[in-house]
Amino acid sequence: MPLLRTLALAVATFAAAHAPAFAQQNWKIASAAQPGSVLLGFVEETARMVGEASKGEIKAERLFVGSEQEIVQQVVRGRVEMGSVSLAGTSPLIPELAVLNMPYLWRSNAERDFVTDNHVVPILRKLYESKGLVLIGMGEVGWNDVVCKTACLTPASVKGMKVRVSPSPASRMFWSSMQANGVQMPLSELFPALQSGLVEAADLPFVYYVTTPAAQSTPHYVMTRHLHHPSAIFVNKRVWDGLTPAQREQLATARPPVDRMRREVEADERPRMEDFKKKGGFVHELTAEQRAEWSKLVVPNQAALIKEIGGQAQEVWDAIQVGKKAFADRGGK
User: Fold this and answer.
1) Comparing 155 with 168, which gets the higher pLDDT?
2) Residue 141 half-sphere exposure, CB side, CA atoms within 13 Å?
3) What angle, rounded to 10 degrees, do the helices at 302-309 and 169-177 form?
4) How far apart are CA 151 and CA 140, in angstroms?
């Protein structure tokens, strides 16, 4: 018996010495990115980086959810740990985010990036946290352009047309400025609506559009470049607060650098457009004068949109104006 007790103690000691030092957490990162899109690669890279940064303590996997609004709700409720969602998709929960989707807000990509990174992100962190989310970092989706079943190159061509309006107030403002017949619906309902004719047009970023059924049912892509789509990577706050300080520090940078995401989305767009045209699609590039026909209907409504959004929208707008001045003072264009 003493020998058996000695052996049992030895086995227990060995097992304790070789037991895992942690209980691995399994996380989901939800996204609506489609297969074949560079956007999907960003989410999968984030999942991999979370595992590497946490030294295997957290195993993250991508989860496809077709509705961005559903993703946001699932993360807020803690049913999904992380989300990678456009600001437009999050604006039903945080209306102030729609300021960043303001049509014809930016003079250049360089201005947009400088102002967002240096003047806007600190405010966004507070807004996300007020809703139970921790903003880990910014991402990129690209520019929204108009997509139609026919060549809709002017505002007059969409006047009265049935168009999909996203839940974002910025989308409502754009289409109402065009006097279109807006039908609000989540992204998950858009593609069957285009196929059935319930709506005849929408606005989407090309790198996403070309991976969806919209590219077949609505083959005219008109480069209005009216609305920019930043995205954000965020974590449920209760989950975040449950991490150790070391884990939070590790995960704070566990995502692709936003500068690289911006470059890759821009670089990915042109060859995809050429391939799309070879397959029978249409990409209509507009001159500055043609684009001005769209913007002149929108810009006078920007101040009213800030009031409509309410909350801290004015604070976000003011920060953007300060940032624009700082960018100009640096000689930026």
Assistant:
1) 155
2) 29
3) 150
4) 27
Provide the whole-model pTM. Answer: 0.84
SS3 7: helix
How far apart CA 89 and CA 97 sit, in angstroms, is 9
pLDDT band at 306 (very low <50, low <70, confident <90, very high): very high
CB-based contacts of 246: which residues, under 8 Å, 6+ apart?
none
Coil, helix or strand for 117? Answer: helix
Quote the strand ranges of 243-292, DSSP E: 282-285
**Dihedral, CA atoms, 279, 282, 288, 290, nearest 10 degrees?**
170
Residue 231's DSSP bridge partners are 86, 139
Residue 67: closest CA among 114, 14, 31: 31
CA dihedral over 259, 265, 269, 275, signed as positive or negative: positive
Predicted confidence (pLDDT) at residue 8 exceeds the cutoff of 70: no
Tell me how far apart the alpha carbons of residues 66 and 33 are, in angstroms, rounded to a whole number: 8
Residue of 198, 188, 106 whose CA lies nearest to 143:
106
- The strand pair at 25-31 and 82-86 is best described as parallel
List beta partners, residue 228.
143
The beta strand positions in the chain, using DSSP E, are 25-31, 58-64, 82-86, 133-148, 162-165, 181-184, 201-205, 220-236, 282-285
Q: Residue with structure tokens 């196929």? A: 195
- Cα three-residue angle 254-86-78, rounded to 5 degrees: 65
> What is the C-alpha to C-alpha distance for residues 208 and 144, in angstroms, rounded to an integer?
10
